[in-house]
Each structure stands twice: as structure tokens, then as C-alpha cells.
Amino acid sequence: NTPGLISNNGCPELKKEDKEVLDLAIKAVQFETAKATIRTASYAVLDKIADIMARYPDFVLAISGHTDSQGSDTANLALSENRAKACLEYLASKGVAAARITAKGYGESKPIADNLTAAGREKNRRVEFELKPKN
Description:
This protein is 40% helix and 16% strand. The chain is α+β, with helices and mostly antiparallel strands.
């Protein structure tokens, strides 16, 4: 319902600084070890995402949870799903309509780094946020 660019299918384009917040969240949202409990240090970036959602009412947010390869596939899939849902629940508690958010866990199936190193495993333990126009 909000006018935007033809190149973006008529939808408004996200501001550069808003894209940067979403990219930062991949590194900034942290959880207690082997749990879906969000660490309090992560609230600031999640609050920024809630603010972005308020400014872009015609957009939806896809949250995807990921883990490293430590542990069983089943446990990692459940952990990634629970972490994505924890982010959804936090954003909903800040006034974002849950109907505008999807949360899915991918476990260890989509690594972005080598799971053979501690640094790689740390990068693979992440939650990603993708803001896109409603269909």
C-alpha cells in the first residue's frame, strides 16, 4: 500500500542504515549456550528491528535460525527453530504483529563457514533476518 520504486516491484526500498541493522543482527543476536534464551545484550539490536518493522508496515520479516555441526542433527534443528521462535516472540512482545513474522530453523544445513574451526562454528551459530515486501 506504500508507493515505492518500479525496480522494487512498486514497493518502498529499505534505507541503507536499516539494511545494516539487519546485517548486524546476524552477529549481534546471541543466546545462552545450547539454549534458545536470548542474552540481554541482544535486546538493543532486536529493539532496532522492532522499530524498523514499525516504519515498514507493508513488509514482513523472515527469521531463520542456524547452528554449527556440533551435536546431533535432530537437536540442532530443534535448537535453531527454538532460537528463531524466541526472536519472533521477543519482537511480538515489542508490538510487532506475529502475523508479519515467520520463524524457521535450518539446523546445521546452511553453514556460512567451516565447521572444523572454532571461528567457523561461531559464524554458523546465527539467526538471520530478512525483511521483504508482503506478497
